[in-house]
Design a protein that fits this description.
Layout lengths: L8 H8 L7 E2 L11 H9 L13 H11 L6 E4 L2 H12 L3 E6 L3 H9 L3 E6 L10 H10 L4 E5 L11 H9 L4 E5 L8 H4 L11 E6 L12 E5 L2 H9 L8 H10 L3 H22 L5 E3 L6 E6 L6 H8 L4 E2 L1 E2 L10 E5 L3 H15 L1
Amino acid sequence: MSVNHGANLYDLSSKYGFSKDEFMDFSSNINPFGTSNKAKEYIINNINMVSMYPDPEYVNLKKSISTYCGCLSKNIVLGSGATELISSFIKTINPKKALLLSPAYSEYENELNKINCEIVKYFSKEENNFIIDTKELVSAINSGNYGLSIICNPNNPTGFAFSRDEIEYILKNTNCYIMIDETYIEFTDTAMYSCTSLVDKYNKLFVIRGTSKFFSTPGIRLGYGLIGDKKVKNEISKNLDLWNINIIAASMGEIMFLDDNFISTTIDTMLRERNYLTNSLNTIDDLTVYPSQGNFILCKIASKKFSAKELREKLLPKKIIIRDCNSFDGLSEYYFRVCILKPEENKTLIKNLKSIFK
């Protein structure tokens, strides 16, 4: 991956003489426990399906997503990863001016720049623990004549999340398109925070999700968008390739979205480990730790003993990789992000951080 999207394990392996598998990659916000065993076993036992074309309508896949998200199948559009759908949606509605909640994932800005859209950044503030006031945001949206507002929920890298009720308040009180990226929503309480069911009610809402992070399947490139605006959905679909989801991805999706045991076990484990990491990081006096609803935690080296880049360099010989957040707009060189890994790896991170700051 590039410097803006995580560590390049190939380069680091060559530089430090470790195999890629030896690194504890706290910069990668992918579920460390792997994907659904049910889905994997199905693929292994039905590998001859690779000689078949997928269903061009993806009826069963959309049915699984519909059940999983609590929305109508007709409001689902499929993509080869979430990034393809972000790009397709932005090109389709072609906003002249967009409000981008920041700091944020760089791909939103990249796609807006491709269509020469005027970008206004709405920064969450450190002094407010990066929490955004909903009414203030609505006021900003309405005062700017925007065609689109983009919200990552929970936000990467700050971890802040609007509740479902807050998102509905935004939808009720604004007129522009609202794109919600729910890439990390499944690592938290979806009943409280996810707004997937709102797409059946609000035509200006577009919800993006992928399977790379929570379902730990970046290799199959499966993403989906939810939108009630039939015209926009049809336009997006028209510009996507026929059979844009391969049969392996489609078959895995049909199963893993309904694998309740995998889903509940992952959520329970990740929440427990997030609490452990948050509490443990808070015991290090040099750090300011920000509350997170994602599978990652934003920290600041408040003592300014060294920069996040220097901290990263100190951890690499220990086979530990953290994310230096200096590439995110609005964050200084003292910010870093750690993702939740397996219990022993999380303990190893805390042990080494305590040692370095001691």
